[in-house]
Design brief:
Layout lengths: L22 H10 L7 E4 L6 H10 L4 E6 L11 E5 L11 E6 L14 H10 L9 H11 L1 E12 L9 H10 E9 L9 E17 L4 E6 L12 H9 L1 E2 H4 E5 L3 H6 L11 E3 L6 E2 L2 E2 L9 E3 L14 E4 L9 E4 L9 E5 L4 E2 L1 H8 L2 H11 L8 H6 L1 E2 L4 E3 L4
Parallel strand pairs: 1-2, 1-4, 2-3, 4-5
Antiparallel strand pairs: 5-7, 6-7, 7-8, 9-19, 10-17, 11-14, 12-13, 15-16, 15-17, 18-20
Helix pairs in contact: 1-2, 4-5, 6-10
Amino acid sequence: MSSLATLPPNATPRSLGRVETPPEVVRFMVRLAEAPKGGRVLEPACAHGPFLRAFREVHGTHYRFYGVEVDEKALDLPPWAEAIVADFLLWEPGEAFDLILGNPPYGALGAGARLSPSQRQAYRRLFATWQGRYNLYGAFLEKGVRLLRPGGLLLFVVPAGWMLLSEFARLRAFLALGGETQVHYLGQVFPGHKVRASVVRFQKGGRGLRLFEGLSGNLLWEDPFWRGEMVRFPDPEALRREREGVALGELFHVHFAARSPQVKAHPLTQTAPGPGLVPVLTGRNLKPGEVDYETPHSGLYFPKAHVAALKPFYAKPHLVVAHTRHYRVVAAWDERAYPWREEFHLLPKEGVRVDLPGLLAYLNGPEAQAHYRGLYREVVPHLTRAMLERFPVPRELVYSLSSW
């Protein structure tokens, strides 16, 4: 078929977001797959068609097979499958499919050589789930769902970040509205890649969510009324802490710091120490329960008297919580009110009084770490605002709360 794809001249499998699927994952997904005899079966971003080949071997030949691939050099399908060179996200086949399965490309849209400005603009117009720093696999999920017949089935293996990250909130709501979603959390199954993976099994029509553990298929949790909320793990102790505690979001205003480009571009930022200047702090200056004010890890300096010009909340002493500590909670009180690059910054709400030493001991202690791991495992290596706002504080550490 004629091509709808225009690849950059320096495109590579890496820049195209291609990751080889482990054979055991392919076999697992094919076991979950089904389609009516004579049905249309599609593998997007297919290359040599590992999913089409495995499905045909297990389920037989009585289907119509199609593979779409943006990279003509990578396309190598057997003669029983129709090969289509196209950008799957822009491709319009004119007929729906009974089964769509595969391993879509991963990567933030527009990263590296992957997309031209015109492609980015086209995607923004086409995809209702586009939000923030979106990812190719999210767009593939939406496109795949839209190409399904009523009752049709989609099976994709994708990074598990969509379960929790705010930029996938629209995608989760889209899935919840469109049908029944099963999530099989696989963890780290791609050799040489740190990404945690999940298999999404979506059936068009129906409703609800079911969460399963790994390739064993043990059911962890189900919600027949799922509306697209974060997909968390049902750790009993963590859920008890949430019921019995007070959410950090009720006690503090949660802000995110100035990012590196903003700090570097500010006219008051300096690259050498001088009178009235202090180091711009980073996550490396944040220790459990303390702040290292001296080490200039960022290599940047800012006038202490004008920190509010960078971010207004820097001007008051406040709680700082690490954004990325690889599945750990690290917090300290910035009593000097220094400038920062990155990290979460929490200012007490009006009328709130907490046991600050007790709160810091709790957030840096084993109970908070168990809570984090229990609900979120290692799905993403960093805290998100939504996760932090829901983080429970024991009620005995809260002296007063005006809304009580």
